[in-house]
Predict the structure.
Amino acid sequence: MNTFSRLSKTDHARALLALGLPLIGSHLAQMALHVTDTVMLGWYGVVELASVVLGASAFFIVFILGSGFGQAVMPMVAQALGRGDEVQVRRDTRMGLWLSIGFGAACYPVFWRSESILLALGQQPDVSALAQDYLRIAGLGMMPALLVMALKSYLAALERTQVVLWITMTAVVLNAGINYALIFGNWGAPEMGVRGAAIASVLTQVVTFVALGFYAHWQPDLRRFNLFQRFWRPDWQAMHQVYRVGWPIGLTGLAEGGLFQASAIMMGWIGTVQLAAHGIALEVTALAFMVHLGLSNAATVRVGRAMGQGNAQSLRDGAKVALVLSLGFGVAMVVLFLALPGPIVALFLDRTNPSAGAIIAFGTVLLALSALFQMVDATQAMALGFLRGMQDTRAPMWIVTLSYWGLGIPSSYVLAFPLGFGGAGLWLGLTVGLSVAAGLLMWRFWSRAPKA
């Protein structure tokens, strides 16, 4: 019998946390890159903050769509390692990098013409123009950002999560320093506002990719994979496999990210102050979600390894432990958001700004509402991680799309406008979509997971 199957629940928890805590840290650090932009632009001006909320949201939506190929590397490499097939590890990772490069190049024209798109969506002209200025520069960082995702997935599947954490943390410091110089014109640099934030993002993504690539290529224990040897040679079979697993992951992320992007667009119809508060509340909520995402990624690797080994008992036990850990953190976030919403929102603003009081007041309401969907958000994140470990990605894509866009978006619109609940209604609608998705995804996993 495989000794893996005899692991206790405590052993599963320790293994999951050993893999997941560095991933959580790296996700939080990655998110801190965007928080840094939001905080510094919040100090710079309300219009600039609103424009970067829109611009960064648009960048994130496109990134999520393209990152499916990089994310597919994680379960595919995990299963290959479970089978002991190191050649397939190299093949899958390389083609994940290839697909990331292709997508990054193809999407840039969208960023170049983003002002007309935002105006067509009803955004204010001054905010749309600044958002385009941001995206024309930040869009150059899409390709290195997608390559970073693929390399992180590769290293995570190999359980090399510590290096991912340290490189990402270094990137946060680098991004903050460049932001401080270029947004405000400090240290003799030109004052560039939103353009400075965009340049900082691009430089940070490039440096992160180079550091991860260097580690993946030169680290002695990883040299046997020969990841970049004859990198230019196509592997059409592996590319098809990565594409098959990856495109539903990207569309699933697009459906979820689009839910929040649509809420940002509708919040922009209500007002600039409300949009700024919405952006801050989303940043805080997303920071909490990074913990669930890190645990979900760790669960993907653990489930993938168990699938490769044909170990059903380990797969099911590990999934139960991961879900309990994620829900436990969700409870802690509910308490925090209900107890200290005002001080949390105030961290993102210059209190001397005339609009700061209104933004804090509205952001406090939104954070209290976000407590409503912490538990269901944790559940749907974990279910997606479990299913991806089994390389089950197409049906979850449809579940998420129908839940978010068939129920979540219409609920947000009806509650906000016809029923008159405004921004609070938008967030209540988000809860509806997330709740339905969580229930259906978790049901699918437990119904399809191999029986012990």
User: Anything to note?
Assistant: The mean pLDDT is 89. The longest helix spans residues 46-83. The chain has 17 helices and no strands. The CA atoms of residues 77 and 89 lie 5 Å apart.
